Amino acid sequence: MKIDESIVQAARDLLADAQNIVITNHVGPDGDAMGSALGFKEILCQQGKKVTVIVPNVYPKFLKWMKGDDDVIIFEDAREAGSEILKDTDLIIHLDYNSLSRSGDMRDVLASATAKRLVVDHHQQPDDFATVLYSDTNMSSTCEMVFHLAQALGWDEYINKESADCLYTGIMTDTGNFRFSSTSPTTHRAVARLMEKGVLPQEIASSIYD
Prior knowledge:
This protein is α/β, with parallel strands linked by helices.
């Protein structure tokens, strides 16, 4: 998978300079939103970054087994704390949404934040608010995009089993268990690498559906 080198280098510079990072996603976080957020968080934490995941509202219980779930801040339940963290952060990573209108009650706080912004998303017609935008509507999921970005950055060593489980979850759910037309050979190659990292598809499917 080839990502434009200018995007990779710009993302590398943003991530290298940031020590205090916030990851956000959209209202009603689904498997792809939470998988990409917690997976990316784990990859960054492996490098010594301080990373906080703040989501607009609650998400399904069947996603709460992923590593990092206990530390997720639900903005609708902790507005003051979430707002303070967003005000002081170096970098905001927006995952699985490309318009601040999809962030619900977080919108005004996000809009006023002075931090730089990295957006990773596979939906159409992104708004113009990112410092660095990695957008690809042909991708199956944001989790697949996070995987490819990590590979392009040379971070394969930082993808451990815990982050791989998270990324696999988002790919699996957003492709309808690999049934949707967005599932490509590239998707399966990404999944193969995640399985090499220790992902057990049957266990994740059971966690999600059973």
